[in-house]
Amino acid sequence: MESNKKNEKKQGLKKLIAPEIKDECDISLVLKENLNGFYTIAGISLLISFFFLVFLNAKADFVIGFIGTPLLYLFISYLAKKFFSRVLALILFLIVSFDCVSTFMIKYGFWNIEGGGTNIFFGILAVFMSINFIRCVFKYHSLKRSRINWKNVLFLNVIALLTCAIVLALTFIVYVIYFGIFNIPLESENPIYNSLFGILMIIAPISIWVMALNNKLPFTKNKPVLSYEK
Known about the structure:
The protein is an all-alpha fold. It has helices at 2-17, 24-55, 60-83, 86-107, 120-144, 150-181, 191-213; strands at 146-148, 226-228. It has a two-stranded antiparallel ribbon with strand order 1-2.
């Protein structure tokens, strides 16, 4: 009985960390389960942030920074699942891995930074989930026998960069005008606004890039990124 329980635990752990991915059904299931994992991490972080803000009188910029990272994970993982994007899956892995390593360094005193996270468990769990995303999207394109149209990719990236430059420039102008009209300092005296602006500066380029690669921007129609072998 004890050996059976141990085997069940090992199988459960293996299913969580390195699930078997053979076909599209497995891909869909694993992506859904791991996306739910990012939803859970974001939800727990939101509850903790609310607790800090209401009961511990934490600074709002600290709370925004605390919840910003899990929401970024959720945002990228959702797009990676929706579009089966290998690039987004790799970006997710790199961001999660960097955060996990930095959390380890902060927790054990190798890196002294104010407001850094110390929950290594969530960090390690997020790394394994991001690896599962990579496995799933690469397996999906392997099964579909997709090919990248590099000329279209280059064109779409140029459109995305131009659009991103315009949007961010306009955003920065509005940011400066708003702060100027209301005489609000632009520097560290307003960490709340700076934190929100920093999050926007990350999310906006990713959104624009995804829209470009999915032919949702002007001049991008009839420019498919992938072709499929019949």
